[in-house]
């Protein structure tokens, strides 16, 4: 299955949220209230020179997904030329993992494939920001899971896209 087929067969954000439990929706809504993206990153997102497609492998039970998805939705709010489709962890493991060259034992959700407007691969974002390997995740995890580290997620995505 190619990226276009995967993207087009994915769920909308609304569908994804409709199959989440009430508790998962509540958690994500609470996180969304805490999302704040700095002006520098907002300007970078606004100035994307073309459209992008975010193909996200996710499950609503995952706290990393609940921290990441509201940030992605905020990016889409800032620049409506970004589209998102969501596939399950199982479909991501079966189809996306191999395309992104992720070994079976390292595949996690969220896994995000960033595609250009022609469904060509641009970059990927997996799990959480890589900067946490240096500063330690335990130092920031409470803030991260509450939505207060959204700039870290945006920064990683922008760097991987070559926008920083």
Overall description:
This protein has 164 residues and is α+β, with helices and mostly antiparallel strands. The protein contains nine helices and four strands; from the N terminus they run ααααβαβαββααα. The longest helix is centred in the middle third of the chain and has 16 residues. It is globular, with a radius of gyration of 15 Å.
Rg estimate, integer Å: 15 Å
Oligomeric state as shown = single chain
The number of E-state strands comes to 4
**Residue fraction in strands:** 5-15%
Mean pLDDT: 97
Classify the secondary structure makeup into a structural class: alpha+beta
- How would you write the strand order of the largest sheet? 2-1-3-4
Ends apart, CA distance between termini: 31 Å
Unreliable spans are: none
Counted by DSSP, the helix tally is: 9
Helix content percent band = 40-55%
**Major beta sheet, specifics?**
4 strands, mixed
| Broad shape | globular
Order of helices and strands: HHHHEHEHEEHHH
Protein name: Thioredoxin family protein
InterPro entries: Thioredoxin-like_sf
Pfam families: Thioredoxin_9
Can you summarize this structure?
The protein is α+β, with helices and mostly antiparallel strands.
Itemize the secondary structure elements and their pairings:
Elements: H1 3-9, H2 13-18, H3 22-34, H4 39-46, E1 52-57, H5 63-78, E2 82-87, H6 89-99, E3 111-116, E4 121-126, H7 132-135, H8 141-146, H9 150-160
Parallel strand pairs: 1-2
Antiparallel strand pairs: 1-3, 3-4
Helix pairs in contact: 3-5
Features:
164 residues, alpha+beta, four-stranded mixed beta sheet, 9 helices, 4 strands, 15% strand, globular, Thioredoxin family protein
């Amino acid at each position: 299955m190619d990226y276009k087929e995967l993207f087009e067969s994915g769920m909308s954000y609304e569908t994804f949220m409709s199959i989440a439990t009430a508790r998962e929706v509540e958690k994500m809504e609470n996180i969304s209230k805490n999302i704040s993206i700095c002006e520098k990153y907002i300007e970078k997102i606004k100035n994307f020179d073309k459209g992008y497609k975010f193909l996200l492998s996710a499950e609503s039970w995952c706290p990393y997904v609940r921290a990441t998805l509201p940030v992605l939705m905020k990016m889409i709010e800032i620049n409506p030329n970004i589209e998102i489709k969501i596939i399950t962890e199982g479909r991501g493991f079966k189809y996306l993992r191999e395309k992104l060259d992720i070994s079976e034992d390292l595949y996690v959700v969220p896994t995000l494939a960033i595609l250009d407007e022609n469904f060509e691969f641009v970059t990927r974002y997996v799990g959480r920001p890589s900067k946490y390997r240096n500063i330690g995740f335990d130092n920031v995890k409470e803030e991260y899971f509450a939505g207060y580290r959204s700039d870290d997620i945006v920064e990683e995505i922008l760097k991987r896209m070559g926008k920083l």
